[in-house]
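Final report, closing paragraph on structural work. Over the funding period we assembled a curated collection of sequence-structure pairs, and we close with a single example.
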Amino acid sequence: MKINLKIIIVGTVILDALAWGSIVFDDFGKRLELYFFAVGQGDSEMVVMPGGVKLLIDGGPPNGKAAQQLGAVLPWHDRYIDIIMLSHAELDHFGGLLDVLKHYEVGAFIYNGTGSNSESFKELASLVKEKNIPVVSLSEGDGIRYMDSKIDILSAHGKNKNEGALVAKLTSGGISALFTGDIGKDTELQLVGSKNIKADILKIPHHGSRFSTTAEFLRVVSPAIAVIEVGKNSYGHPTAEVLDRIKQAKARLFRTDTDGMVQLIIENGTIKQYKEK
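Its predicted structure, as stored:
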């Protein structure tokens, strides 16, 4: 079942016991935390909002790494993810969600309403249905609100799956972050011309493909931190052109292929940066 709505209010009742456990054992969930998981050639990010609400964006390819890194980051007693957001229905973004769904309870599954005829996506859809997870189709202009955190959907459809990936802007903790899926220069141009896309943190589109991350897009976003999620591949990602443009934009660059999992902790508007390697 698909539910269309303009604002999602994320309930917190189910989180009460888990939030108390976090207070007892560590600082998890007290502040804004962003994780960029090292899942190989694919994307998977997690946003932990102040208050403990967790948003998992994509799950990388079907190699088990997203579930493994979730287990390493989340408190041992926490087996609940409030929202899974799928940017678009490509295997290197949804394949790892199969393992995640088998090991975690999920409050809602959101995407742009466009699926895939692949057997892997059919398996994912079947598992979501089997676990009675509400499915929400989001469009441009929709959003997620929780306390003082908000996520605005800036783009949701395009001429193909990559260009039609959900583009989401997070505003929380005195900073902003832009999550871009695999969009290319066509969607970037539309965003530059019509949206407020300036952000402190930028998830570089499409693993550093030469068809994305244009100089104009970087100029308008003006990120202090850029993260490329990439692994061993035959596409030449990230390309020298993109790396040079990021350098010219004077953004601090992290790469999951060389840095491992990247963690950004935000306290009082200050970004503390950590990497696995």
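Residues 1-25 have pLDDT under 50 and may be disordered. The domain at 2-275 is CATH 3.60.15.10 (Metallo-beta-lactamase; Chain A). We thank the funder for supporting this effort.
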